[in-house]
Design brief:
By secondary structure, the protein is an alpha/beta fold. Helix content is 18%, strand content 30%. A seven-stranded mixed sheet has the order 10-9-8-7-11-12-15, with helices on both faces. A six-stranded antiparallel sheet has the order 4-3-6-1-2-5. It binds flavin-adenine dinucleotide and FE2/S2 (inorganic) cluster (FES). FE2/S2 (inorganic) cluster binds at residues 238-241, 243-248, 254, 256. FE2/S2 (inorganic) cluster binds next to loops.
Amino acid sequence: MIAAAADAMVPLALSIERLRRDTQDTFTVEIAPPGGFSFAPGQFNMLYVFGVGEIPISISSDPTKKSAFQHTTRVVGAVTAALKRLKEGDTIGIRGPFGSSWPTAEAAGGDCLIVAGGIGLAPLRPVIYSVLAQRQKYGRVVVLYGTRSPDDILYAHELAQWRGKFDLDVQVTIDRGGRDWRGNVGVVTTLIARSPLDPANTTAMVCGPEVMMRFSLTELQKRGIPADRIYVSMERNMKCAIGFCGRCQYGPKFICKDGPIFRFDRIAAVFGRPEI
Ligand SMILES: Cc1cc2nc3c(=O)[nH]c(=O)nc-3n(C[C@H](O)[C@H](O)[C@H](O)COP(=O)(O)OP(=O)(O)OC[C@H]3O[C@@H](n4cnc5c(N)ncnc54)[C@H](O)[C@@H]3O)c2cc1C
Ligand code: FES
C-alpha cells in the first residue's frame, strides 16, 4: 500500500522509471517505489498527472515482483493523453492500490478461463502471471484475447511466450485480418464454445468493453459455467476511490470499493443498465 488509510486521498509523488509504447494508442509506465509495492491481481491505482487530473488505472504487472509495478493505458482523453506525453524521470502522483481482486485463490483446484477484449488484457495480465507462478494448483488454463487488428495486439512478446507453454492454451483473435495474419478472425466470444474446459469446474474471469462482456456472459452461461464462477471487471468514472464521493455508484454498490471485480451473480440485476 502506497498511502496509509488515513491519507488515502493524498497522492505520493513518484518518478516514472520506464516508459514503453505498446501499440499506436497504448503505453506502459513502470514505477519503482523506494519501499516496494504489493497488490492483488485486478486492483487499481489512482494516477494523478499534475495540473491535468486523476484517473483510475489497473495495475498490469506481475504481482510476484514487489520492486516495481506497471500500468498499461490506452489514450482516450485529456488525462490519458497527458500521461502519454510524460517522459522517463517525470513525476506523477499515485494513490492505491484500491478495490477488489480476481479470484485466483478460489479458482485453484479447477480449470481457469481468462477472456480479455482490447485494453481489458491489462487488468488480467497479473492473473496470468499469478496462475503461472503456481501452475500446479490449477487444471486447464485458457486465455482468450480479442483485439481490433494485428497492430493492436498488446503484450505480443509475452503472448508468444505464453503460447509456447504446453500447459497454457492461448488463443488470439482479431476483428479485421490482413494478408499476413494467419490466426483467428472474429470476436473473442466465438472462441468460448471451443475452449477445452470442464464447465462445471471452471472459473471464468472477463474484462473488456461492456458489450464484449455482455456477449461473453451469454456464451459462458450457454457453455454451462455457473454464474457464481464468472467474474467481471466494471468501470465507471471515479473521484475519491475510497467509497466517499458516490461518483462510481453502481446500483447499491460502489465500484471503487466493492469492485472493480465482481462475481457476476452478485451484480446480474444491474449489469448492462447504462444509467446505473
Ligand atoms: C477500476 C478502473 C480500472 C481501469 N483500468 C484501466 C487500464 O488499466 N487501462 C486503461 O487504459 N484504462 C483503464 N480504465 C479507464 C480509464 O480510467 C479511463 O480511460 C480514463 O479515466 C479516461 O480519462 P481521460 O481524461 O483520458 O479521458 P476522458 O476525457 O475522461 O474520457 C474520454 C472518453 O472515455 C470515456 N471514459 C472515461 N472514463 C471511462 C471509464 N472509466 N469507463 C468507460 N469509459 C470511460 C468517456 O466517456 C469519454 O468518451 C480504468 C477505469 C477504472 C474505473
Ligand atoms: S469514486 Fe468515490 S465512491 Fe467510488
